[in-house]
Design goal:
alpha+beta, 13 strands, globular
């Protein structure tokens, strides 16, 4: 929370840093393409950055940040995140240098940024020199985590006129207990999560909210004005925060139940679901924008923090297999919401049945993963 005297230094520093990063990116792209490393970029750009008024440590961070951005881009291309060879997204990414926004986050280490937790102030490097006693605010829990576990670098960014410091904390994992069973969690669109205990977290309310947001965004897009573009960006971020809040609530409840009952958590491994599953044209936007992975990552890190065993299992036929007799057939699921075994007659909600199958697979997989290594014959 910089005051009126200190704020101009922040407003000058962050855009200048990102402009310098864009220059380093263009130089590296022209010389090395997407393969610029820290050592080569330092030879080309370090002297010029020092001449522009950046300190030694700030110049090093700018160069390393650009190199890390290209490393991330290469990894994304290799993993197929930008499509196959010849796709429009991949060609676009490979044909131009990485660009940083004026308010994008920049890295500060302990030489450029120091914390005073008792006074809730920071001392930070800027182009106008070192600025001390800049106040920061956070919750009591966040302050405790900062005091006990902060480690490494922090990022400074500006969003909607406010300044944020994103600090890195290194929290040690809690010792994982031996589970007495597993809770299976089936994820979906209509039902965000359904557990093997029968608890259902419906997505009907969130779907209505997203449809309402889609109508509002379409109205703003039709205006084609600068103010409409700004409002559109705000709505997109607001919708993302809303979905994140719901995923936090769901994951917190599920992990709390698992911890209280001394059971582990089993999830479907849904990596690549958008490439494997084909949906109708009117459902593509819903599927592509749904935070499947986010809910899974929230469940994973909350489980690790609470010491709850966590495992991912094969999702194949979990909603078509009967958990009683094992009969697997597409006919067992006559509709999206209902399951009815054609062999033994077991019937119930399809998502609940899938959760039970996931829980059974989690128990079997946990035994195999944690089985002792056999000794030599």
């Amino acid at each position: 929370m910089p005051d009126a005297v200190r704020a101009p230094a922040f407003e000058r520093t962050l855009p200048a840093v990102n402009e310098a990063a864009n220059w380093v990116s263009s130089v590296g792209f022209e010389r090395f393409g997407l393969k610029g490393a820290v050592r080569e970029l330092r030879k080309l750009c370090y002297g010029e950055l020092k001449a522009r008024g950046f300190g030694a440590q700030a110049a090093q961070h700018i160069i390393k940040r650009v190199a890390d951005a290209y490393t991330t881009l290469r990894a994304g291309i290799k993993a197929g995140n930008l499509g196959g060879e010849g796709s429009k997204r991949r060609i676009k990414a490979e044909s131009k240098p990485v660009v940083f926004r004026p308010d994008a986050a920049h890295t500060f280490d302990d030489r450029c940024l120091s914390w005073n937790y008792d006074a809730r102030t920071v001392s930070i490097w800027t182009l106008d020199g070192r600025i001390k006693n800049v106040r920061f605010v956070c919750s009591a829990d966040a302050l405790k985590q900062l005091t006990e576990h902060r480690k490494g670098e922090s990022d400074l960014l500006r969003r909607d006129g406010m300044w944020f410091l994103i600090a890195t904390i290194d929290v040690p994992d809690t010792e994982v207990f031996e589970p007495r069973g597993f809770i299976g969690v089936d994820r979906g669109i209509n039902n965000l999560a359904t557990t093997s205990d029968g608890t259902n977290y419906t997505g009907r309310r969130l779907s209505r909210y997203r449809r309402w947001q889609a109508r509002k965004k379409a109205e703003l897009q039709a205006r084609r004005t600068r103010s409409a573009v700004r409002l559109l960006r705000k709505r997109v971020r607001r919708e993302a925060r809303h979905a994140t809040h719901i995923n936090h609530r769901i994951s917190k409840d599920v992990v709390a139940v698992a911890q209280r009952t001394e059971r582990g958590l089993a999830l479907e491994e849904l990596r690549g679901i958008r490439e494997r599953v084909t949906v109708r044209r009117d459902q593509r936007a819903t599927q592509s924008s749904w935070p499947f992975h986010q809910l899974g990552s929230f469940l994973e890190y909350k489980a690790r923090r609470a010491g709850v065993p966590f495992i991912e299992v094969d999702p194949a036929y979990t909603s078509q297999r009967c958990p009683r007799c094992g009969h697997t057939a597409r006919a067992n699921r006559p509709t999206r919401d209902h399951f009815s075994c054609r062999r033994c007659g077991l019937a119930g909600p399809a998502d609940h049945v899938a959760g039970v199958n996931i829980a059974k697979r989690g128990s079997s997989a946990w035994v195999l993963v944690n089985a002792p290594v056999p000794g030599p014959a």
